[in-house]
Amino acid sequence: MTVKIIKCSREDLQILQEISIETFNDTFKDQNSPKNMQTYLERAFNSKQLDKELSNVSSEIFFIYFNEELAGYLKVNMNEAQSEKMGDESLEIERIYIKNKYQKHGLGKYLLNKTMEIAMEQNKKKIWLGVWEKNENAIAFYKKMGFVQTGAHSFYMGDEEQIDFIMTKTMI
Ligand SMILES: CC(=O)SCCNC(=O)CCNC(=O)[C@H](O)C(C)(C)COP(=O)(O)OP(=O)(O)OC[C@H]1O[C@@H](n2cnc3c(N)ncnc32)[C@H](O)[C@@H]1OP(=O)(O)O
């Protein structure tokens, strides 16, 4: 098996859009109304929004390939690109999404390790993320990777207010 992680640029917008929509749909469509899903997908993954995110120097997006096939992606945010004001010593994992058929092959852990490398290079003290309280699979993954719950915040899925757990890992 070969695994490669490659940083995205603005030229990757269309592929990023496709994998973002596919993985978000697969993860959440069974627990959310079609209307709320549609509203979220259009807001979060429209071309203008993704181009803005790809152009932001305080964010980095990576694709992960498993045996040359695109299997998932990672988005990390630093400084003012973070979704909450966590300060310059923190780094946010905004998204780790692995396509269904590649889950449980260790790829999430590869992306987490990539995040740790970035955090170390940039002397960050903490890595944090927000994860939907009902996303038990991801919560179990992050706990296994050493994250602990440190708070909660609101998140809007369409017109429904949902609770995200904030989970944090302190860099040693
Ligand atoms: C901030 C956010 O992005 S929140 C949203 C997170 N993303 C999603 O929910 C999208 C759908 N899910 C996924 O993309 C993936 O399942 C992820 C990212 C949650 C996990 O990635 P995977 O590639 O499936 O996990 P991976 O195989 O790397 O597992 C790493 C370790 O976590 C453990 N693990 C993974 N999932 C679980 C689980 N549900 N329960 C317990 N342990 C788990 C594995 O056993 C493995 O342990 P090991 O290191 O002892 O071998």
TrEMBL record:
Give the Gene Ontology MF terms in alphabetical order: acyltransferase activity, transferring groups other than amino-acyl groups
Would you indicate the residue range of the signal peptide?
none
What name is this protein filed under? GNAT family acetyltransferase
Keywords associated with the record: Acyltransferase, Transferase
Q: Which SUPFAM superfamilies match?
A: Acyl-CoA N-acyltransferases (Nat)
Give all residue intervals belonging to the N-acetyltransferase domain: 3-172
InterPro entries, per database record: Acyl_CoA_acyltransferase, GNAT_dom, N-term/lysine_N-AcTrnsfr
Enumerate the Pfam families for this protein: Acetyltransf_1
